[in-house]
Amino acid sequence: MTRKKYLTLILILGTLTALGPFSIDMYLPGFPAIAKDLNTTVADVSLSLSSFFIGISAGQLLYGPLMDRFGRKKPLYIGLAGYLLASVACAFATTIEALIILRFAQAVCSCAAAVASVAMVRDLFPVEDNAKVFSLLMLVVGVSPMIAPTVGGYVTAIFGWETVFLILAGMSAAILVAVYIGLPESSKPDPGYSLKPRPIISRFILVLKEPQFYTYALSGAVSFAGLLAYVSGSPLLFMEIFQVDEKEYGWIFAFLSIGLIGSSQVNSIMLRKYRSERIIFTALIAQLAIGGVLLAGTMFGWLNLYATIACIFLFLCCLGFTFPNASALSLAPFTKNAGSASALMGATQMGIGALATVVLSIFSNHSAVPMAGVMAASAILSLLILLLGQKIIRKRGIKYTPSATATGALH
């Protein structure tokens, strides 16, 4: 593979991966404006974020089997076209209930991009390079929390929150063209792949029985819930508690994203010397300590705006090490079943993330304690799952090296 082709693939896969984060981050500064226009509260508007996460979780289970049956690109075209239509409809929502439902539809369609990007990493690159590729994708994805909320803040202030969804529709159209022109079909359609419920469920069960999958997919998903708790709670934290405006919120969000982006790139360098398993363990220990400080500081009023930003920045740094390694290790045992495995991994991440955002909405008390509590709890549970899962893996003597994956993967 030439360097030009390699970079083109990374860029297109990165934009596919970034579509979901843009859909989340870009409208966050508009929460107060949406609440005002739709005669509701910011807490109720956050339910449109929860419905988006639920839609992503459910949709990935749909697109995984479809992409194993029909190849990656045809379901991807349908998903991107549906996303475009749902985004336009969101711009014309007149009630919070309509927005919640339309965001669910938008999320289900966006899953095609999320599932395809993860599965195609496994299709197009050697397994030993997967963690490095995921880190590079995070660099592209990392642009979204730097650009999206900042642009969203200015767009909302000048043109209104509806324009944000029209911009998202335009983005999906551009990505659709890029996929058609520059992305190869990485998996041939499999006519023998059944889409009946029983075979699909059987394949998912086969994936779930793999200790390496459930250890790293679940541990990574619970850790990832800390990120989604921050995303969901940040409008309340910064715009209502600390009284920053939409534009300032966008710049704060952009700064905090540097922690996630930077650490994911440092992760690529560290992989030259350290194994993914060791990096995840160390990152989760640090994430637990930082989450504890954030929770205690929030409960007792020790943290001002700048100290809060510092704690969240360090917390996101830890996630930059956890997520790419957990993703690579989760998918390492699979080849032909990579579509179903990536869908199940993504559904687990977003399903647990959706639960975290719903918990925040239920326990919303106009303080940052619920958000900090969920972030700290995610670090504790993720570390416990990792330790227990690694114990099971060691007991069974399972070890997936690149050569072992090529010969001993699940089909």
Short description:
By secondary structure, the protein is mainly alpha-helical. 82% of the residues lie in helices and 0% in strands.
Structural account:
Residues 9-394 form the Major facilitator superfamily (MFS) profile domain. Belongs to the major facilitator superfamily. Bcr/CmlA family. It is found in: Cell membrane. The chain is mostly helical and 411 residues long. The protein has one domain (3-184, 195-396): MFS general substrate transporter like domains (Growth Hormone, Chain: A), CATH 1.20.1250. The protein is 82% helix and 0% strand. The chain has helices at 3-25, 31-37, 42-70, 73-91, 96-124, 130-141, 143-158, 162-182, 197-208, 211-241, 246-270, 276-299, 305-331, 338-362, 369-396, 402-408. Helix 12 packs antiparallel against helix 15 (369-396). The two termini are 26 Å apart. Mean pLDDT is 85; it is low at 401-411.
The averaged pLDDT comes out at 85
Structural class: mainly alpha
Query: Architecture in CATH?
Result: Up-down Bundle
Shape from CA axes?
globular
CATH homologous superfamily title = MFS general substrate transporter like domains
Reading off the top of the CATH hierarchy, the class is best stated as Mainly Alpha
Given the structure, what is the number of helices?
A: 16
Q: How many β-strands, per DSSP?
A: 0
* Helical fraction: over 70%
User: How far from one another are the termini?
Assistant: 26 Å
Overview features:
Growth Hormone, Chain: A; mainly alpha; transmembrane; globular
